[in-house]
Every structure is written in structure tokens, then in C-alpha cells.
């Protein structure tokens, strides 16, 4: 079998959308599964849509996810360069070849002339194709002398592909099966622009050919372009090396119709980008999966199943499992609905199986970003007890901050309900007892506090909530005795002090 070589070919027109990440992932899995190569190619031929920083962003995102290209702009190698703007000369040669063989032609029409042609098409707006090309200004309608003269005069021109009439273009898609387009639906697309830059269609097929791409795995939005691509392969005489095509289903909005968009993320409060992205034109910062507190492994597992069905009940797949189990045949045809709750569930599962040290390491940057400096040993202890309580790494700050931040906000409802005569006296006696306790291990605290309640015939419900609120601010949280052990005697006593003064004041 031909060596498997696949590519992820994003255009640096903005941040990588989560759908793009899924495309990269499926390409990566397919390459690894087949001992093939995963390439990164930057398709930056559309200078008007080029966005500063987008290429760096794409690379950083792939890096965070561990989808490291075998070949790409930063790896070098004999397929270099991997950025299309650095390959400009290559494409011109191929565009010329198509003109020479009669499959493409020069077109000199001005934007106004093109608008006029479209308007004259009436409601359906005319296409530049077999029905209109004869009336336009191009090397098919003008004499050779005239064309040569115009070129010599420096009149700008583009190169267009000449789409044949009345043909059915058929190709096999590994997800959709046989797909056909009538050539009459296709327009004579521009393949080389006035500045000598190729358009996506030309650059894409030339590079897939030169880079020996065996399989093209990309989003569904490119399905209709494939008909043009198939013709281009034929016209170039490259039919035998044409890659196998796979078009991935759309990722749909969480509710309603249509594709998941950047706005959905902002509206519903979930990420649609892998990493944070500052949108200059809108002066808006979009947080990514990373900043929301997702682990890269969980993000990938979630995305793997968004459009691919393993055919079993299994949901948790390590990267190795995915490489083994992935198959193009099991990619679904219909759109896959984005579900953030499911993403969180995956994250929780991955947090649960992390080692304590790893979790502490993963939490560290979030703790620092929140402005805290927590020593490593404490962070590991907190990782152990907080692990079952986290869906996102960011939950840690909210749920565990009382361990390293003395500024507590107290649950006033509990105080109003329980900070009463008898309870106050009893809690104060308990504090006295704790003052005289040297052993602040959770086991010992458990014993003495339970004994205290029993020996004085008190109810747990009157004492423990007050203790908990005084020490942590809220009623929920990890085991009280463990919490006290971690806080340590000094902190526990000083927190009682501060809290009781506050309790008295309300
Ligand atoms: N540059 C295209 C994109 O941005 C790539 C499409 C393809 O993979 O052929 O998605």
C-alpha cells in the first residue's frame, strides 16, 4: 500500500476553531494508525483574510494538544516549504501548464465587468462558465494577438479553470460513498490571481500532489470544491495520484440549527477555541478550552467522539486507544451536536485518573493566575482531596481557595440560623478543647470532636455547620477533619477568632 501521508491545512485567517482541531485530530489518528506521516501546511494564499498571529496560534494549539506534525513549517525536510506564500513560484508554473494544455485561460475582466455579468444573469446571478465566458474578456474570446498585447501592456489578469460542459464528475468519499456533481453547476474558478498568488483550489491540489498526500480528511464545507479539485487532478494528468477524500460532518450548535459558531461560545459561556484568542477587530478576548480548565487529553477524547462512533459503549479513550480504534468508516455522516456538559464529564474522568503530582502540576498555573502562591507540598495534598470535586481545573480556585486565602465570605444563612445562645457556648467550649489539643491529625480531630458532641449530648447539626462555616466560609467542601488537619492548628484557631467576631456582628 502507498505510504499514508495526511495533512492538516488550515488557513491563518483567525484562531483555530474546535472543528479545525477535530480535523487535525482525525488526520493525526489516521497517520499514526497507519505508520504514516502527519503534515502541517499553512494555506495563506488569501492575503486579504490573513490575520496576524494566527499561524503561531495554530501551532501553539497543536502543541498544547500534543498533535505534533511530522512535517511542517518548523520541521524542514525535503517537502519544504510548508507555507504556501513561500511557494508562490511553484504554482505559477502549474497554472501556465494548464493554460498551455487548454484547460485554463487568462481573463482580463474588471470587477465592474464581472458585476455587470452577474447582474445580467437575473435572479440566479450568472456564473463565469460555459454560458458566459464567450462574452467576457479572456483568452478564449479574444484573439491571440490581443491577449499578447494586453499582457505586454501590463493589464492585470487572472487565470481561470475551463470547466467542461455536460459532464458528471464523480469521486468516492470514504464517509459518503460515491459523490457526483454536474459540471454545469461549477463555475470557471479563478486559480491564479492578478498578483500571481494561487487561489486555494490550485495551491491545494498542487501541494497535495507534490507532498504525496494519500488521504485528504477535511471539513464538509469543502465537499463541493472537491469537484473542481478532481478536474484539476485530471487536467494535470495526476489522476493516478489523486488522494482519497473524506469529508467530516459539521459540528452543530448545542441547540437549534446550524454550525457551532464563535458567538455560540460567547453567548452560552463555553469555549470554541483551544486556547485563548484576542480578537483585535472586535477588541474581545475569547477564552479557550485550556483557560476554561480543560485538560488536553480530555479535550481530544471529547472531540474524537464528536463525529466518530466507535461502535461500542466505550467512551474513555487514551491517545493510544484512539489510534488503535479510530476508523474512517465509523465517522458519522450527519452533523455532531456540541455538548459542553459532555466535555466537562470527560474532563472530570481525566482528572480522576490523574496522579496527584500531575494534578497538582496542572493546577499550579491556575493558582498563580488567580494571584496565589501555594507551595508544592500543599498543592499535592489539596489535589488529593479536591480531585473528586473538580470538573474543570478552574473549579479548584473557587472550591479550594479557602485553604490558602484567609479572606472568607461566610454563608450568612447558616450563621443567622445557628449562631444562637447554646450553640455559641458549646462551640466556644469546643474551641477551648482544640486549643489544648496538640495532635491535629484528622483521625484525632475526628475522635475528639465526636466525643465532645456525645459527651455533652449535643447534636452534630448544631455544631459542625458553624465550625465548617467559620473555617471555610461555606457548608460544602471536603471532609471537615481533613480540612482542619491541612489548615493546621494555628490557622484553625485564628479563623475561629475572626469568624466568631464577625458572627457576633450580624
Ligand atoms: N485551507 C483550508 C481550510 O482552511 C483547507 C481545506 C483542505 O483541507 O483542503 O480549511
Name the bound molecules: glutamic acid
> How many helical stretches?
20
| Helix/sheet category | mainly alpha
Estimate the strand proportion: 5-15%
Helical proportion? 40-55%
Terminal CA distance reads: 78 Å
Main pleated sheet: 3 strands, antiparallel
CA gyration radius, whole angstroms: 32 Å
* Mean pLDDT metric: 96
What's the β-strand tally? 13
The strands making up the biggest β-sheet line up spatially as 3-4-7
Q: Segments where pLDDT lies below 50 for 5+ residues?
A: none
Global outline: elongated
What does this protein look like?
By secondary structure, the protein is mostly helical. It is built from 20 helices and 13 strands. The strands form six sheets. Strands 3-4-7 form a three-stranded antiparallel beta sheet. A two-stranded parallel ribbon has the order 1-2. Strand 1 (5-8), helix 1 and strand 2 (37-40) form a beta-alpha-beta unit. Helix 1 crosses helix 11, helix 13 crosses helix 14 (376-386) and helix 19 (460-472) packs across helix 20 (480-505). The protein is elongated and about 110 Å long. It binds glutamic acid. Glutamic acid (GLU) binds next to helix 6. Residues 9-11, 43, 200, 204, 218, 222 line the site of glutamic acid.
Amino acid at each position: 500500500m502507498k505510504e499514508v501521508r495526511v495533512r492538516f491545512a488550515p488557513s491563518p485567517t483567525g484562531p483555530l476553531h474546535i472543528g479545525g482541531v477535530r480535523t487535525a485530530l482525525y488526520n493525526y489518528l489516521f497517520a499514526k494508525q497507519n505508520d504514516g506521516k502527519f503534515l502541517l501546511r499553512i494555506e495563506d494564499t488569501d492575503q486579504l483574510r490573513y490575520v496576524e498571529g494566527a499561524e503561531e496560534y495554530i501551532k501553539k494549539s497543536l502543541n498544547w494538544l500534543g498533535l505534533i506534525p511530522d512535517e511542517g513549517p518548523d520541521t524542514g525536510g525535503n517537502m519544504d516549504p510548508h507555507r504556501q506564500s513561500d511557494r508562490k513560484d511553484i504554482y505559477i508554473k502549474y497554472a501556465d501548464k494548464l493554460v498551455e494544455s487548454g484547460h485554463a485561460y487568462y481573463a482580463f475582466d474588471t470587477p465592474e465587468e464581472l458585476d455587470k455579468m452577474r447582474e445580467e444573469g437575473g435572479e440566479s446571478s450568472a456564473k463565469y462558465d460555459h454560458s458566459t465566458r464567450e462574452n467576457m474578456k479572456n483568452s478564449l474570446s479574444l484573439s491571440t494577438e490581443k491577449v499578447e498585447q494586453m499582457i505586454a501592456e501590463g493589464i492585470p489578469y487572472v487565470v481561470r479553470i475551463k470547466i467542461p460542459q455536460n459532464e458528471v464528475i464523480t469521486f468516492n468519499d470514504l464517509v459518503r460513498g460515491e459523490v457526483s456533481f454536474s459540471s454545469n453547476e461549477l463555475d470557471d474558478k479563478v486559480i491564479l490571481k492578478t498578483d500571481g498568488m494561487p487561489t486555494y483550489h490550485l495551491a491545494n491540489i498542487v501541494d497535495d500532489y507534490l507532498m504525496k498526500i494519500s488521504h485528504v480528511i477535511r471539513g464538509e464545507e469543502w465537499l463541493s470544491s472537491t469537484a473542481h479539485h478532481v478536474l484539476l487532478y485530471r487536467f494535470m494528468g495526476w489522476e493516478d495520484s489523486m488522494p482519497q477524500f473524506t469529508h467530516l460532518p459539521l459540528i452543530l450548535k448545542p441547540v437549534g440549527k446550524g454550525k457551532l459558531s464563535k458567538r455560540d461560545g460567547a453567548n452560552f459561556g463555553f469555549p470554541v477555541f483551544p486556547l485563548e484568542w484576542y480578537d483585535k477587530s472586535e477588541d474581545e478576548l475569547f477564552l479557550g478550552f485550556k483557560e476554561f480548565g480543560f485538560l488536553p487529553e480530555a479535550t481530544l477524547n471529547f472531540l474524537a467522539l464528536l463525529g466518530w462512533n466507535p461502535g461500542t459503549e466505550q467512551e474513555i479513550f487514551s491517545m493510544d486507544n484512539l489510534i488503535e480504534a479510530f476508523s474512517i468508516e465509523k465517522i458519522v455522516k450527519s452533523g455532531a451536536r456540541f455538548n459542553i456538559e459532555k466535555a466537562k464529564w470527560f474532563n472530570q474522568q481525566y482528572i480522576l485518573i490523574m496522579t496527584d503530582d500531575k494534578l497538582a502540576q496542572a493546577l499550579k498555573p491556575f493558582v498563580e493566575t488567580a494571584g496565589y502562591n501555594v507551595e508544592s507540598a500543599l498543592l499535592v495534598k489539596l489535589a488529593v482531596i479536591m480531585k473528586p470535586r473538580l470538573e474543570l481545573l478552574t473549579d479548584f480556585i473557587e472550591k479550594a481557595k479557602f485553604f490558602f486565602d484567609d479572606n472568607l465570605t461566610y454563608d450568612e444563612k447558616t450563621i443567622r440560623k445557628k449562631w444562637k445562645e447554646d450553640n455559641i457556648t458549646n462551640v466556644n467550649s469546643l474551641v477551648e478543647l482544640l486549643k489544648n489539643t496538640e495532635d491535629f491529625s484528622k483521625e484525632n480531630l475526628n475522635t475528639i470532636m465526636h466525643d465532645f458532641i456525645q459527651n455533652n449530648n449535643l447534636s452534630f447539626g448544631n455544631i459542625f455547620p458553624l465550625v465548617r462555616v467559620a473555617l471555610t466560609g461555606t457548608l460544602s467542601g471536603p471532609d471537615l477533619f481533613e480540612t482542619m488537619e491541612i489548615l493546621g492548628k494555628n490557622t484553625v484557631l485564628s479563623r475561629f477568632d475572626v469568624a466568631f467576631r464577625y458572627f457576633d456582628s450580624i
